Amino acid sequence: MSYLKINGGHPLSGEIEVSGAKNAALPIMAASILTDEDVYLKRIPDISDVWIMADILRSLGAKVEFEGKGEMYINCSNLTNFYPPYEFVGKMNASFDVTGPLLARLGEAKVSLPGGCNLGSRPVDMHMDAFRNLGAEVEFVHGFVHAKANKLTGKKIQFRRVSVGATKNAMMAAVLADGITVLESAAMEPEIVDLAVFLNTMGARITGIGSSTIVIEGVKKLHGLSYEIIPDRILTGTYLVAGAITRGTITVKRTWPDFLESFINAMRNAGQNIVCGKDYITVEKSDKILPTEIISAPHPGFPTDLQPVITALLSIADGTSIVTENIFDRRFMYVDELRRLGANMSVSDRTCIIRGVKKLFGAPVKAHDIRAGGSLICACLSAEGESIITGLEFIDRGHEKIESVLAELGADIRRID
Ligand code: UD1
Of 20, 154, 247, 385, which sees the most CB atoms within 10 A? Predict the structure, then answer.
């Protein structure tokens, strides 16, 4: 069993670069299915979710090569299979991203319900409704979603709630459909914007990008391209919390502050000194961590993926904070692990009350999902003494070379295999 050993209590300092965004890279890899020409991607993060998506694409007949330094080559000219194996799909939620592109390109997709982080139920009913709206026959049988269509036709699709996954799948299915598709109550996350810009660079006609109404005029064919993925805003936030919770000064470079407005406001409300440049964010040493209120919401609200991370910081604030989770019903599972480190927190339904303690103390803890992993790493970096973090299979899904990045900032962290 592999684990991370952290000797906490040391302020971090220095500068690091953040990798490309996992949640943009995965759908963009899936969207490469939509062309039979060459796709070159840059700034692809070196994380296990990306390796799984590469395996899924290969299982469909695609050629996928990692070319070093975050570069990847994909060619889907010989795509033959519309049924990726469960052993890959079951490993992460984003594997369902291939459904829309397969339906658009091959007229058929059979994809099992995805697995991945245990954040509560992860239904795909809105994805299925969107495919049906575009004219596909969609069935759910023996754990698989089976969608078929001789042709897809543009339509108005009103989502009943904001969903990143359903917006991605509907957009990717609609780009090659006949006529115009309008997505209402669409997700506005930066990763959705990146996917839309990628599709337009391939020759798609998408407008309203970054708003809640996305309009897609179907085209006959998409072409190959070279494209750089946006920086990872969730990892940027995780590193900034690692700096703040250890009372250090660190700078995250090659990132985009505009993506993190609600997070930066929350950090400032928590007494943190945040300085933003065009493509960097610095958190400066601050003596005080103030209690605050966090309410997660779809973009531009506070991102649910940074909720567990900032909660770690608030566990040592000077007072009581309230955190409300509005996206995933089991997102607070990590709270029990933070309690092992001495945090004083209680959860009732979707709300967590955090009574700040003076200090956390090292202990063995386990990550149950990717962002719980980020939260525990930050907490253990601040905790006095030694901590052991297991559950690296989750941490490695979303954090590129986490121990070397943090060691570069002066953390006493080691991976033991
Ligand atoms: C994506 C992100 C994840 C992030 C989340 C919210 C990826 C790979 N993952 O997940 O990191 O935390 O957005 O920003 O990009 N829902 C339904 N029916 C559906 C689809 C979703 O009820 O058909 C519900 C979900 O259960 C959840 C909410 O809608 O409660 C939002 O889910 P969604 O935005 O779709 O999240 P994901 O795409 O799974």
Answer: 20
Ligand 1: residues with CB < 6 A are 23, 26, 93-94, 121-127, 161, 163-166, 191, 304-305, 327-328
Residue nearest to atom 29 of ligand 1 (CA): 163
Q: Distance between CA 294 and CA 133 in Å, rounded?
A: 36
Place of tokens 């962290």: 413
d(CA 293, CA 314): 10
Cα–Cα dist 376/8, whole Å = 12
DSSP symbols for 378-399? HHHHHSBEEEEEE-HHHHHHH-
Mean pLDDT computed over every residue of the chain: 96
The amino acid present at 331, given as its one-letter code, is: R
Measured in Å, residue 326 CA sits from the centre of ligand 1 at: 11
Q: What fold characterizes domain 22-228?
A: UDP-n-acetylglucosamine1-carboxyvinyl-transferase; Chain (3.65.10)
Residue nearest to atom 1 of ligand 1 (CA): 164
The predicted model gives 204-233 an average pLDDT of: 98
Atom of ligand 1 nearest to the CA of 167: 35
Two tokens, residue 233: 């805003």
Tell me the pTM. 0.97
What is the pLDDT, as a whole number, of residue 298? Answer: 98
**According to CATH, where is 3.65.10.10 located in the chain?**
3-19+231-416, 22-228
* 8 Å CB contact between 75 and 61: no
* Distance from chain centroid for Cα 65: 22
Ligand 1 centroid to 148 CA: how many Å?
24
Lookup result for tokens 């060459």: 38
Rg, the chain, Cα only: 21
pLDDT band at 1 (very low <50, low <70, confident <90, very high): confident
Q: Atom 39, ligand 1: which residue's CA is nearest?
A: 165
117 classed as catalytic? yes
Q: Give the DSSP per-residue string, 95-132.
A: GGGGHHHHHHHHSEEEEEPP----SS----HHHHHHHH
- Ligand 1 midpoint to CA 345 (Å): 26
Q: Provide the terminal-to-terminal Cα distance of the chain, rounded to the nearest Å.
A: 6
Domain at 3-19+231-416, CATH homologous superfamily? Enolpyruvate transferase domain (3.65.10.10)
